[in-house]
Amino acid sequence: MTAVKIAELRNRLSNYLNDVKEGEEILILDRDQPIARIVPIKLEPLDEEMMSLAAQGKIRLGSGAVEEDFWKMPAPRIPDELLRQVMEEERADFRRRKEPVRPGGQ
User: Fold this and answer.
1) Which residues, at least 6 apart from 5, have a Cβ–Cβ distance to it below 8 Å?
2) Helix, strand, coil proportions of the chain in percent (round to 5)?
3) 2-5 and 33-38 as β-strands: parallel, antiparallel, unpaired?
4) pLDDT at residue 105 greater than cutoff 60
5) How many CB atoms lie within 10 A of CB 26?
């Protein structure tokens, strides 16, 4: 863990945030007294993907619980063939990601 005074943190914030991204914890001092810690967020792989999509503006992350009225709404109508195609593509993609990489690309 790295300890840093507020003025130093302010001057080199980007450097310290890069350290946090690499797993380092930063202890923030005010007149040599600890006042806060900056710690890396440990995300699950799915969380990382969701955060990436949110950063790209492709999805919006929810907040709080889904209200009960939501479940009373009618489900979207999707043609069976389209649903089947999407599910097959998802399964094929999942299988490709789970296959071990063979030496020599074979």
Assistant:
1) 28, 29, 30, 32
2) 50, 15, 35
3) unpaired
4) no
5) 19
Would you say 25 and 38 are in contact if contact means Cβ atoms under 8 Å apart? yes
38 closest CA partner among 25, 22, 51, 23? 25
Kindly give, in sequence order, each residue whose CB lies less than 8 Å from that of residue 43, ignoring residues fewer than 6 positions away: 51
Backbone angles phi, psi at 2, to 5 degrees: -100, 135
Q: Model confidence over 39-80: pLDDT tens digits? A: 998 767 667 888 888 899 999 888 788 888 988 999 888 899
Query: Residue 26 in contact with residue 2, Cβ under 8 Å?
Result: yes
- Residue 4's CB is within 10 A of a number of other CB atoms, namely 18
